[in-house]
Amino acid sequence: MAEAQAKLALGDKNVEMPVLKGTVGPDVIDIRKLYGQTGAFTYDPGFTSTASCESGLTYIDGDQGVLLHRGYPIDQLAEQSSFMEVAYLLLNGELPTKAELEKFDSTITRHTMLHEQLATFYRGFRRDAHPMAIMCGVVGALSAFYHDSTDITDPRQRMIASHRLIAKMPTIAAMAYKYSVGQPFLYPDNSLSYTGNFLRMTFGVPAENYVVDPVVEDAMDKIFILHADHEQNASTSTVRLAGSSGANPFACIAAGIACLWGPAHGGANEAALNMLREIGTVDRIPEYIARAKNKDDPFRLMGFGHRVYKNYDPRAKVMQKTANEVLDKLGVTDPIFDVARELEQIALKDDYFVSKKLYPNVDFYSGVILSAIGFPTTMFTVLFALARTTGWVAQWNEMISDPEQKIGRPRQLYTGPAQRDYVAVDRR
Ligand code: CMC
């Protein structure tokens, strides 16, 4: 892979480093021997110029607004595929045949139930706990219930753990919701699709026969596809870093969920809808645009901007179209959708947003759809975590299978005191 050499002159040392080429995308300078040859580290907080791993799963061209999973464009997958198929693709590298898809679907379906004792575990949480807090705890606890799939050196156990995580996430998410509204938990119904089953466990009640609305099922499935994976983002890197120490997969995914919760990452969908509701009416938009541009105001336009996309996030395009369809088909009129559309139009013409290449991201319209379906804002990030679990387990498997895999151990630029002697407390 290394065809060229990058040259670095550091004092009197001249170092040559291999330049690696991926299938597509920027060249990567291999600096692994730099410290040994020069005694110097590189400095890149926030990883703005650093490739942390080699991966064959997901490719993003942020300037062109392209997102590919195993080579397939996200809009094609969202329009033509299903979440189960995309999960198979991410895990196995190729689209499944009909028979492979049926087998995968049936395997996932058979793992949807949770250990009965986990229901007791839920009852330890406060009723008003944020469902993400519940999800972090419950997923972390899974290793206590499924320790027969925690040997990461066994590929079969790794695959069972991956299937379990993908399958149980909807049940865990639905139970977190049910607990917060004081309704009884519903067991999975394996005659339904992955997404239909999740909707029933969330919105169904034992007293009534819940009928899955195909419009909602289709929109929800699309939302899951759009969130399935996204290269080496903060939560995925967290999963990889946790996994690099040999931690079990359930613990690693719990770490990913904790990272995803932040408002700069997965928590942005909740923050974006709260912001749209706070704006409330189109006439108040200029006030918020001015706040977003004011350096002395910490306010940011939530659902806008992205570390990698310096163009329209391709997921946001599908999301906007889906929002139109869902609101239309469900006959929902929500003024926040008008606020969102108008805000987008104003921001896209504003010099500040244009010059900084800030475009709507996946979270800008997802909240509008989820709210129309009936989810409270606190559930938004939970749904993101549910879908992203497929990407996390696929990335984790890829890392563990890599023979060059080492524990992740970044270094630092130390700026604290140099060595000094201890002074007894009465002499300080
Ligand atoms: N509103 C106003 N200004 C912004 C925004 C925004 N949403 N996003 C970035 N900027 C400005 C920022 O102030 C900075 O200005 P300056 O160069 O004058 O200091 C410039 O644009 C670059 O921003 P940055 O914070 O250095 O860029 P980053 O790559 O570190 O941050 C981001 C990316 C997504 C954290 C940021 O754009 C943001 O906070 N957006 C709002 C939160 C959000 O929607 N997050 C969801 C991301 S998509 C889902 C996911 O992958 O998790």
From TrEMBL:
Bilayer-crossing regions: 364-387
SUPFAM superfamilies on file: Citrate synthase
Keywords: Acyltransferase, Membrane, Transferase, Transmembrane, Transmembrane helix, Tricarboxylic acid cycle
GO cellular component: cytoplasm
Biological pathway: Carbohydrate metabolism; tricarboxylic acid cycle; isocitrate from oxaloacetate: step 1/2
Pfam families attached to this UniProt entry: Citrate_synt
InterPro entries linked: Citrate_synth-like_lrg_a-sub (IPR016142), Citrate_synth-like_sm_a-sub (IPR016143), Citrate_synthase (IPR002020), Citrate_synthase_AS (IPR019810), Citrate_synthase_bac-typ (IPR024176), Citrate_synthase_sf (IPR036969), Citrate_synthase_typ-I (IPR010953)
RNA-binding in keyword set: no
Reaction(s) catalysed (UniProt annotation): oxaloacetate + acetyl-CoA + H2O = citrate + CoA + H(+)
Source domain of life: Bacteria
GO molecular function, one term: citrate synthase activity
GO biological process: tricarboxylic acid cycle
Family annotation (CDD domains): EcCS_like
Keyword Repeat belongs to the record: no
Residues at the catalytic site: H306, D363
Database matches in PROSITE patterns: CITRATE_SYNTHASE
Family under the similarity heading: Belongs to the citrate synthase family.
Record protein name field: Citrate synthase
Organism of provenance: Sphingomonas cavernae
Lineage: Bacteria, Pseudomonadati, Pseudomonadota, Alphaproteobacteria, Sphingomonadales
